[in-house]
Write a structure and sequence with these properties.
Layout (H helix, E strand, L loop, with lengths): L12 E6 L2 E2 L2 E2 L4 H5 L2 E3 L2 E3 L5 E5 L25 E5 L1 H6 L4 E4 L7 E3 L5 H9 L5 H6 L36 E5 L5 H11 L7 E2 L17 E4 L25 E4 L11 E4 L8 E4 L4 H9 L21
Parallel strand pairs: 1-6, 1-7, 10-12, 10-13
Antiparallel strand pairs: 2-3, 4-5, 5-6, 7-8, 8-9, 11-12, 13-14, 14-15
Length: 312
């Protein structure tokens, strides 16, 4: 199955992509009322004279922000960002998701709906870069939000380097991005339970032996120099859309130099490219809670100046 490509847009237009559907009908939630503006045919003109074109196709249902760049027409003209009305917008009342289509395609940031026109006008005029949006988002992934500063801010100005697509799996991926400490890498795998002949950590755990406070991570290990230096913001566009991973955990330089062998876990859903840094023994519990929707990614993003709950 392949997703339909995005439509070509006129110069100066920004696409508002519906990714939430019910009985084949697109759902916008309260977004169209919250962003204001005036109707001009199929386009909504926002503050700053930004022309926002809503587009819908039920085949885009539950499409994630990181998968949007692959749908951009190669011969079309698109602005540097697209806007998504996704499940958090429709059912949670969150701000719309802006997806980077130019600097680091696939990463995202949320913006207040009432400020969408203002922010898009600044982006289109080149007065506001996507790096500026990412650098000023709070722990909830909201640009200039009030949810506190992340203890581990997202990297900006990422190098424009091509990486291969990550393996397709509906489980978690553990991707090695630092190759300077081979004994440390082996020690990490041992601490997580070791790998089987197919490269899986805890592919078939014994439920009777599980510590509920440190649920084992079930992950496909990716140990490939092609991913050396991969950063969180670059991950979402590498995840295949059909068998979509629960999360991607990066074993980076921090993993081999800091206590607890922390892994950098990448958000693939609510705010693509946002990261959370936590001890490797907590990543299994994170994956489990995200999969059953018992907790949100936000619950694992440490706040600057505050001790995270798993260290309390």
């Amino acid at each position: 199955m392949s997703f339909p490509a995005l439509p070509r847009s006129a110069p100066g237009e920004v696409l508002l992509i519906g990714t939430c559907y019910e009985d084949g009908k697109v759902l916008w939630g309260g977004l169209l009322g919250e962003i204001g503006g005036r109707e001009e045919g199929d386009v909504r003109v926002l503050d700053g004279e930004v022309r926002l074109r809503p587009v819908a196709d039920s085949a885009w249902h539950y499409l994630h922000g990181g998968n949007i760049p692959a749908l951009v027409p190669t011969d079309g003209v698109l602005p540097p960002v697209a806007v998504l009305a996704d499940i958090p917008v429709v059912y949670g009342g969150d701000g719309p998701l802006l997806v980077d289509l130019a600097a680091t395609p696939g990463r995202g940031v949320r913006v207040p709906a009432a400020r969408l026109g203002e922010i898009l006008a600044e982006v289109l005029a080149g007065r506001l870069e996507f790096d500026d949006l990412v650098g000023a988002m709070d722990t909830y992934g909201m640009y200039q939000g009030e949810g506190g500063r992340p203890a581990h801010p997202a990297a900006t100005a990422l190098p424009r380097r091509a990486f291969p697509t990550l393996p397709a799996t509906e489980a978690a991926l553990l991707v090695r991005t630092s190759f300077d400490d081979e004994p440390g890498w082996r020690a990490l795998l041992d601490e997580l339970g070791g790998t089987d002949e197919d490269g899986w950590v805890n592919a078939d755990p014994d439920l009777d032996d599980i510590d509920p406070d440190h649920y084992p991570v079930q992950a496909l290990v990716v140990d490939d120099h092609a991913f050396e230096g991969l950063l969180p913001g670059q991950v979402p566009a590498l995840v295949p859309p059909h068998e979509h991973a629960t999360l991607v955990a990066l074993a980076d330089a921090r993993t081999f130099t800091e206590p607890g062998r922390p892994l950098t876990v990448v958000d693939l859903y609510d705010v693509p490219g946002r990261s959370a840094v936590l001890p490797c023994r907590q990543v299994g519990s994170m994956a489990c809670n995200l999969e059953i929707a018992n907790m949100d990614f936000d619950d694992f993003v440490a706040v600057e100046g505050e001790k995270p709950w798993w260290d309390a």
